[in-house]
Design goal:
heterodimer; A: 447 residues; mainly beta; Methylamine Dehydrogenase, Chain H; 2 domains; four-stranded antiparallel sheet; 4 helices; B: 260 residues; alpha+beta; Thrombin, subunit H; five-stranded mixed barrel; three-stranded mixed sheet; 18% strand; elongated; WD repeat (chain A); nucleus (chain A); NLE (chain A); WD40_repeat_CS (chain A); Putative Angio-associated migratory cell protein (chain A)
């Protein structure tokens, strides 16, 4: 196809929409060898990219989110309630509720419409270490240092009978994705005793336990096509079959503790039957069909990839079907604890104790840019639902919002009185960012 | 059975003496008395060696007893102090204990303006002017007495240049200048050697503050950027105040405690 050299992204967008015969024009971004075209082809590729004008070039288009998350600028509410450090927080798949777990042994549910407390879930006898919403937004699972997992009904605040079995602190939880099980009955929990258990939350019993790690398991993820991924302090990542708990593969490569895992499909798996237009679950079978289409369109574009980060300062990008990594992502100078895939799986953000947030290419693992600004260790990082912004929480008590395209800081959000342990961006329309930390206050940030 | 194990063989064949258990019990009961008597009688090198051996044995015994005690008593639940809660990714890391300075910035400003601080040493001995300033006689005949020598430690900024002798009323000897202070953080209970940035207040008056005289009770500003303290807005704290707790002129060093 012959194009004028002055073609701008807008012009290319019109062209692609015309070629694909889209009924409504959709936004796209364009790349030549992973270099994004921002102003026009002549400037970005020929002048900046040092390409000859005599060459035929391949322009790759990448669909963008059709909605835009507005920039986060201010704190709309500071919700007191937990009088001790908040260790974990998680938005419900629709983004209308927030669950937080704290050192004061309670789990609290906050209503995001009014930004007020909704329920206080008491039952644990030790610090709550992780909370996780079921993908139908009905249940909240919490894991604690008292070695139990509890599952609560979010609308009534009932439930919370202990599920016993682990002999160590629960470090991570993962629900079965909505598209493979619309009833949301299975939950995987990772523990410091080195095992991962899969529970039937209706009958509150262990379906099977997966032992094989020789050190505490720090992360667990439930993949889209029947695989469970676990990362452990024994330096390995293991892949298990979600059907019977059989060990499928062991991924070796890290030289130190594995801290966290992330999936390229994570956003879709987390939100299940919800998206920016569907805020209510409604009919379960309809929601299931919606989740299946969302998952299959994403997976058709690119297969599921797994990312692991470690104390050896590196990240590994894995294709779960092969024991060899796709790429080893080096560049950080301190342990990496927070990683996140962008909702469409095209970008990776990683947060490290060296105070930087780094962006990587989601398919190849190529380093894109480093975002500096935090003066302390960065603990957690999260993408906005449209994939255009990143929020990070740090030891220096601030939350910062970054622009993905330029790598510039979009907003600095001070206000916490102490270290920020958790940041989460509301799925759905992405109107809110919640953060919690050592000072025990939940802060909601909005446009 | 080997040939030399005739005792065992005899025991096997005929059994032990009838009072064997009784004798054994008595012997073990007597053992401690015997040992005590020996320990009292022994002297010289033998005593030294013997006591050393007994000491080691006793330690071992105490440890064993303690181990048994621990096994027999029920363990308390693991520490559930809610303030020490950490996210999983920070568990089992050797975290530095960091003190917080996240104090109210406005309050801090107000205090600064009033030059009033809650100091660990609220009252110090007043230092007389005669003690600090030594009169230097100048002039051809040594009749002029307007020049003073500061006989205490002083902090002089790095950019300071001495005035010409004609105008220099106060001489601050280079040998008595200080640049760094050993500052203790009261919460961390740790001491750091930090650069002095300035003298904020000397309790003996404004002139001494202006001259940078460092005596006991003086509030100095130190460079704490190495400690990694952050303000509420996420900036690294640079300067913080500290109060001098020793007499630098006696010790030759400046010790101070950080005002948090």
């Amino acid at each position: 196809m012959n194009l004028p050299a002055e073609a701008t992204p807008e012009m290319l967008e019109m062209l692609v929409n015309e070629v694909l015969k889209n009924e409504e024009p959709l936004p796209y971004s364009f790349y030549v060898d992973d270099i994004e075209i921002r102003s026009d082809v002549l400037h970005d590729v020929v002048e900046e990219g040092k390409r000859s004008t005599e060459q035929t070039i391949r322009i790759v288009y990448q669909p963008q989110a059709i909605f835009k998350v507005r920039q986060i600028t201010r704190c709309t509410s500071t919700m007191q309630g937990h009088d001790h450090p908040i260790v974990c927080l998680h938005f419900s798949p629709s983004g209308s509720l927030l669950a937080t777990g704290s050192g004061d042994t309670t789990v609290r549910i906050w209503d995001m419409g009014t930004e007020t407390p909704s329920h206080t879930l008491r039952g644990h006898t030790h610090h709550v270490e992780c909370v996780q919403w079921s993908p139908d937004a009905r249940l909240v699972a919490s894991g604690s240092m008292d070695n139990t997992v509890r599952v609560w009904d979010a609308s009534s605040g009932k439930g919370g009978e202990p599920m016993k079995g682990h002999k160590g602190c629960i470090t991570a939880l993962a629900w079965e994705p909505f598209h493979s099980d619309p009833s949301c009955t299975r939950l995987a929990s990772a523990s410091k005793d080195g095992t991962v258990r899969v529970w039937d939350v209706v009958h509150r019993r262990t379906l099977f336990a997966m032992g094989g790690h020789t050190a505490p398991v720090m992360a667990v993820r439930w993949g889209g096509d029947g695989l469970i991924y676990t990362g452990s302090r024994d330096k390995t990542v293991k892949v298990w079959s979600a059907k019977d708990g059989r060990l499928v593969r062991t991924l070796q490569g890290h030289a130190h503790w594995v801290n966290a895992l992330a999936l390229s499909t994570e956003h879709v798996l987390r939100t299940g039957g919800f998206d920016e237009k569907r805020q209510k679950l409604g009919d379960r079978s309809e929601a299931h069909a919606h989740a299946v289409t969302r998952y299959s369109t994403l997976i058709a574009r690119q297969s599921e990839r797994l990312l692991s980060c470690s104390d050896d300062f590196t990240l590994f990008l894995w294709d779960p079907s092969s024991p060899k990594p796709i790429a080893r992502l080096t560049g950080h100078q301190q342990p990496v604890t927070g990683i996140s895939f962008s909702p469409d799986g095209t970008l990776i953000a990683s947060a490290s104790f060296d105070g930087s947030v780094k962006l990587w290419h989601g398919a190849t693992g190529k380093f894109l840019r480093s975002m500096r600004g935090h003066v302390g260790a960065v603990f957690c990082v999260t993408f906005s639902p449209d994939g255009r912004m990143v929020a990070s929480g740090s030891r220096d008590s601030t939350v910062k919002v970054w622009d993905v395209a330029t790598g510039k800081m979009k907003a600095e959000l001070p206000g916490h009185a102490d270290e920020v342990y958790g940041v989460d961006w509301a799925p759905g329309k992405g109107e809110r960012v919640a953060s919690g930390g050592k000072d025990g206050a939940v802060k909601i940030w909005r446009n | 059975m080997p040939q030399n194990e005739y005792i065992e063989e005899a025991i096997k064949k005929h059994g032990r003496r009838l009072d064997h258990e009784e004798r054994k019990r008595k012997r073990t009961a007597r053992e401690v008395h015997k040992k005590a008597a020996f320990a009292q009688k022994v002297h010289g090198l033998k005593a030294k060696l013997y006591n050393k051996k007994r000491h080691a044995e006793k330690i071992q015994m105490k440890k064993t007893l303690k181990m048994h005690d621990e096994r027999n008593t029920k363990q308390a639940a693991p520490d559930a102090n809610p303030d020490t809660a950490l996210p999983p990714y920070l568990l089992d890391r050797q975290s530095q204990t960091r003190a917080k300075v996240l104090s109210n910035a406005i309050k801090q400003k107000r205090k600064e303006r009033a030059a009033k601080w809650d100091v660990p040493l609220p009252k110090v001995r007043a230092v007389a002017e005669e003690e600090v300033y030594k009169v230097i006689k100048t002039g051809k005949k040594g009749t002029k007495q307007w020049k003073r020598l500061v006989s205490k430690h002083t902090f002089v900024p790095a950019t300071f240049t001495r005035l010409p002798p004609k105008y220099e009323r106060f001489i601050r000897p280079t040998a008595l200048r200080v640049k760094r202070a050993h500052v203790t953080h009261p919460e961390l209970k740790a001491t750091f050697m930090l650069d002095i940035l300035g003298v904020k207040k000397n309790p003996n008056g404004r002139d001494m503050t202006g001259l940078g005289v460092v005596t006991k009770g003086t509030v100095i500003e130190v460079n704490v950027s190495e400690l990694g303290l952050v303000t509420q807005s996420g900036k690294v704290v640079w300067g913080k105040y500290a109060q001098v707790t020793n007499n630098p002129e006696n010790d030759g060093v400046v010790n101070a405690v950080l005002l948090v």
